Amino acid sequence: MNTLRTIHDVLIKIPWWRRHQRRLSRFIKRTVGAPDAYGDLFAIARKAKPVSVLDIGSHNGDTIERFVDDLDIPICGFEPTPGSFEELKRRYAFNPQVRLFNCALSNREGYENLFCNANPQTNSLLENDIGNNRFFPEHTRHLKTIRVKVRTLDGWASRYLPAGLLIVKADVQGNEGRLLDGGKVLIRSRVAAIYAESQLCPMYKGQIGFGELHERLTGECGFYLHNVYPCLQDKKGKAVQLDALWVKDEFLPL
Prior knowledge:
Elements: H1 2-11, H2 15-32, H3 37-48, E1 52-56, H4 62-70, E2 75-78, H5 82-92, E3 98-101, E4 104-106, E5 110-117, H6 130-135, H7 137-140, E6 142-152, H8 153-160, E7 166-170, H9 176-181, H10 184-190, E8 191-199, H11 210-219, E9 223-228, E10 232-233, E11 239-248
Parallel strand pairs: 1-2, 1-7, 2-3, 4-6, 7-8
Antiparallel strand pairs: 5-6, 8-11, 9-11, 10-11
């Protein structure tokens, strides 16, 4: 298995092979009826013809890579962690399809504390709550706290985005509520679909859980829940997080 993994890790770095492998994987999932978030997003993009994809919480750019491989539209990536942002620049600074922004999106303009953790994918503007402390302490242990720039989605869009529809992917580690607060106008009027991580138990202090996120997106913003995808589970098998896709009615991919 280690040899196969090594071969896979080498081949996945080759763009033509990576595209072929992922398209084959999506075909197999579609054939057997398995949930496929990126297949759904690409189908929505073909239908909605968005002017851009917003990748909010880009980390080191693996999701941007998926969008670049399959969509010929601009991608805007947002990442507040300095080390992760440097990795993004190394990967995409010379790719004209990708624009990078070294900030977090929240409910105000200015600067806030970012909790930097042992696993930088768990870095958050919010302090850990009982879920992270109990289930994933080795990943969410704080290494330091830094000040980072925060912007509102509405404020950022008024400066940088042309008119037209958008697709949003958000992985903001519990800060989904404040992201919505700062992007009410844009999300209601211009977002065709939003694919977001959501919490099923108290992972971050001040978070909104899946139920409230769903209620706000459907009740306030006019979305419909299209699908939920395999959950993150703790060591006992309890579901603690999931990814879900909400879509405006006219762009549902069926």
